[in-house]
């Protein structure tokens, strides 16, 4: 459906008049923003309705992506883009004298996730709709999204992020789809007309109310649904006149997003959250199947429904579907198990043991007595099926319940037909190390699906000038089919294209320089190398290695050794309970203060740590980056996706051979990436032989010693204890992230980057190659692979009309 500028202006004026009784000159930016959102909703509402009808009428198989995090960022621009209205609206607003970017910036980020995991889930929602598949999200509607990060005296402070206060413009409350979720209490099995059925007693019941958000496809007729569940007091309890405190206790269930993806606080509440959205989601799917599709013909369930378990948090979906089938719908156990395995698939996102969830048996039993017994039965049958066939050690290692803990990854693997890792190396490590026993048992279940990013958000929205350059050179087909971007490589020797590329980057850097000035007061030179590391703060991601490089550069400059000008830009949030990560933040901020205020340094080196890294900030930083820092300890970063976003925007990567960095190198060739550091075998050798002795390295290498000593010798003011903590960490034999082992190689990689930087044409050529090959990481293609190899979906055809 097309929208003309005149039509948009007319609708905007009508909406202002109707909703706010205002004309354009009186209207506030907030009112205008609300009216534009309303116009956009009108634009997709019929698609959304017709998609639902078509899916039911034509009985399309649908996939439901269960994820405890979704990180869509803002939706106005992406909805406008996908409707095909973005440029029209921008131009019309300009003609009306309105600042589109300023008004769009009113939208709060929908930050229902911590980082990469949630961002991937959001990208998949966009790609499912855009590639024409019936795919829906299922998650939690946290009242407070990820906290707002503030720096006070260099320390991270966490402020509440009450994103719903401003009103969420996109959600629709679907009261009629509410379901009830049961916690606690006891049950007995009673014979009900020949079927052993649980009879519950003393449980507390919470009402789950869905809020649906449309996921609009790119210039097609589709709009899928992201369903987020909110906890409310149950109708029966309403009859007892609940107090505000009672009400709040129930509502607290969906109040906060756990600000961590590897260590958990408030474990009981976290467990409750997980069961809440899993049970509510599965109930609504089963209700839909029974009412609108196939009645109780459950053998057909896997032909119409795929449920995806994104990381271990929704792993209890396996047991909950069994409960619904066996207890509520009287399907016999073996049939139900067959249905469940065919329905479920699971993505593993980490090899780090502390992030593979395990639940204490007693806690689980008390909160979810029936589910616990079902898991026990799944485990018993699993063990029974293997007895006598494999050695006992294998059974002990892979069973679900052992040592008084429930191993959720094991439940997910045993209950699914597909288990995938998120980059080639990661999947290989799952097969050969972390999940090796399961790989021996079920080799056919394992497969790789390298993560992806949506190029619509990271190029078309975040970098519109680059998008235009692509149109001008290779035509606009790449916007529908990213493979076309490979043609951009044909412009490798084209001087005009190379200078356009340089000019676009320069303009993006000027824009970011302005943002930096506004947010921090720091003045940076847009001609300097913009060296970017943006990602959650974690020891394995090694912001520490970047920090040591900054200290080294500072010492060089003080000693009169020259380097090209550089602005080092960090964006990183630390989990509130993660002490080491917070110490790193403090030290980076102290180093930044020292460097930025040293008159001898001037603009030769600046260090900028931007607060509150989120999707919107990423959209401003990434198009302005020259260098992309992807320097995790090899084997530890499952895939990474900021590496992909940055290459798509023409940044050159400084990379360890970890996660998807390896695939970036394969795509662009080793001459277009600055690869360095230990490989996987070297890392594992250190672990296996306990042969990592960083103090020896430090004593032998005077450059390293001088750099590391700066942390404790008073060079950096204001972070004595934190500097000491980092120093002690780096030099301990048990420092598992091997920072000092990669230090020298990292400096070499940076030296090489500086050398290339001096040749502007060469730099632009490498940048061009990176942009062209970012097509390999288009999430539309990732989704095509999930759809055909795991979910077995067919495409939904809906005419794109009003
Ligand atoms: C892409 C993205 C991430 C993931 O970054 P990694 O470097 O892959 O860890 C985290 N947070 C935000 C806001 C993102 O946009």
TrEMBL record:
Cofactor: pyridoxal 5'-phosphate
Protein's UniProt keywords contain Transferase: yes
Residues bearing the modification N6-(pyridoxal phosphate)lysine: 645
Gene3D superfamilies, per the entry: Glycogen Phosphorylase B
Signal peptide residue numbers: none
One example of a Gene Ontology biological process annotation: glycogen catabolic process
EC number annotated for this UniProt entry: 2.4.1.1
Name listed for the protein in its UniProt record: Alpha-1,4 glucan phosphorylase
Organism whose genome encodes this protein: Lactobacillus porci
């Amino acid at each position: 459906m097309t929208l003309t500028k005149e039509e948009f202006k007319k609708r905007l004026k009508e909406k202002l008049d109707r909703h706010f009784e205002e004309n354009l000159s009186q209207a506030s930016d907030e009112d205008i923003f609300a009216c534009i959102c309303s116009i956009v909703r009108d634009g997709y509402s019929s698609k959304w309705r017709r998609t639902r009808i078509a899916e039911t009428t034509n009985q399309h198989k649908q996939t439901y992506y269960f994820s405890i995090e979704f990180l869509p960022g803002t939706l106005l621009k992406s909805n406008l883009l996908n409707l095909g209205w973005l440029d029209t609206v921008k131009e019309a607003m300009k003609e009306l004298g309105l600042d589109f970017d300023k008004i769009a910036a009113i939208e709060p980020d929908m930050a229902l996730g911590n980082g990469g995991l949630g961002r991937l889930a959001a990208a998949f929602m966009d790609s499912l709709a855009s590639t024409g598949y019936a795919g829906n999200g299922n998650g939690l509607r946290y009242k407070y999204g990820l906290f707002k990060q503030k720096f006070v005296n260099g320390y991270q402070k966490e402020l509440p992020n009450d994103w719903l206060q401003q009103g969420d413009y996109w959600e629709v409350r679907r009261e009629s789809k509410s379901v009830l979720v049961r916690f606690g209490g006891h049950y007995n099995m009673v014979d009900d007309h020949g079927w052993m059925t649980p009879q519950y007693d003393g449980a507390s019941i919470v009402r789950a109310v869905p809020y649906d958000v449309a996921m609009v496809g790119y210039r097609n007729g589709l709009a899928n649904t992201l369903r987020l569940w909110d906890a409310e007091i149950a109708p029966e309890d309403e009859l007892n006149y609940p107090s505000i405190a009672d009400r709040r206790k129930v509502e607290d269930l969906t109040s906060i997003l756990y600000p961590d993806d590897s260590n958990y606080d408030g474990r009981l509440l976290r467990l409750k959250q997980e069961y809440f959205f899993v049970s509510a989601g599965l109930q609504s799917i089963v209700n839909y199947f029974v009412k609108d599709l196939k009645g109780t013909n459950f053998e057909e369930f896997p032909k119409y429904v795929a449920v995806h378990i994104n990381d271990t948090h929704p792993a209890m979906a396996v047991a909950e579907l069994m409960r619904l089938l066996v207890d509520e719908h009287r399907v016999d156990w073996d049939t139900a198990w067959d249905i469940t395995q065919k329905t479920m698939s699971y993505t593993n996102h980490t090899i780090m043991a502390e992030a593979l969830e395990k639940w204490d048996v007693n806690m689980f039993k008390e909160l979810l007595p029936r589910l616990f017994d079902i898991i026990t039965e799944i485990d018993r049958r699993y063990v029974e099926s293997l007895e006598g066939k494999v050695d006992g050690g294998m059974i002990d290692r892979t069973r679900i319940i052992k040592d008084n803990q429930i191993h959720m990854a094991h439940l997910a693997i045993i209950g699914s037909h597909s288990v995938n890792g998120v980059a080639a190396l990661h999947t290989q490590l799952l097969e050969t190390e972390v999940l090796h026993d399961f790989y021996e048992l079920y080799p056919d279940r394992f497969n790789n699906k390298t993560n992806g990013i949506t190029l619509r958000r990271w190029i078309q929205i975040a970098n519109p000038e680059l998008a235009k350059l692509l149109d001008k050179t290779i035509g606009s087909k790449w916007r529908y089919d990213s493979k076309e971007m490979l043609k951009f490589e044909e412009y490798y020797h084209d001087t005009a294209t190379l200078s356009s590329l340089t000019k676009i980057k320069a303009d993006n850097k000027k824009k970011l320089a302005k943002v930096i000035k506004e947010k921090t007061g720091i003045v940076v030179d847009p001609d300097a190398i913009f060296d970017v590391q943006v990602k959650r703060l974690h020891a394995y991601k090694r912001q520490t290695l970047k920090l040591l490089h900054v200290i080294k550069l500072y010492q060089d400059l003080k000693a009169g050794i020259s380097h090209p000008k550089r602005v080092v830009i960090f964006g990183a949030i630390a989990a509130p309970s993660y002490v080491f990560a917070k110490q790193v933040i403090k030290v980076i901020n102290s180093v930044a203060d020292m460097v930025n205020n040293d008159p001898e340094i001037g603009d030769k080196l600046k260090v900028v740590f931007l607060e509150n890294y989120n999707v919107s900030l990423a959209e401003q930083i990434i198009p302005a980056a020259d260098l992309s820092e992807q320097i995790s300890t090899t084997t530890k970063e499952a895939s990474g996706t900021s590496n992909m976003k940055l290459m798509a925007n023409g940044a050159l990567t400084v990379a360890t051979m970890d996660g998807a960095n390896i695939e970036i190198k394969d795509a662009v060739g080793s001459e277009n990436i600055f690869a360095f550091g230990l490989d996987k075998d070297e890392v594992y050798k250190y672990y296996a032989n306990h042969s990592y002795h960083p103090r020896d390295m430090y004593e032998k290498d005077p450059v390293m010693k001088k750099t590391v000593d700066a942390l404790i010798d008073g060079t950096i003011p204001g972070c004595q204890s934190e500097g000491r903590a980092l120093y002690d960490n780096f030099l301990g034999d048990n420092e598992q992230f091997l920072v000092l082992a990669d230090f020298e190689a990292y400096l070499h990689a940076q030296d090489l980057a500086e050398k290339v930087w001096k040749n502007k044409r060469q730099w632009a050529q490498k940048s061009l190659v990176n942009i062209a090959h970012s097509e390999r990481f288009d999430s539309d293609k990732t989704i095509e692979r999930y759809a055909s190899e795991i979910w077995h979906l067919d495409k939904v055809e809906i005419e794109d009309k009003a």
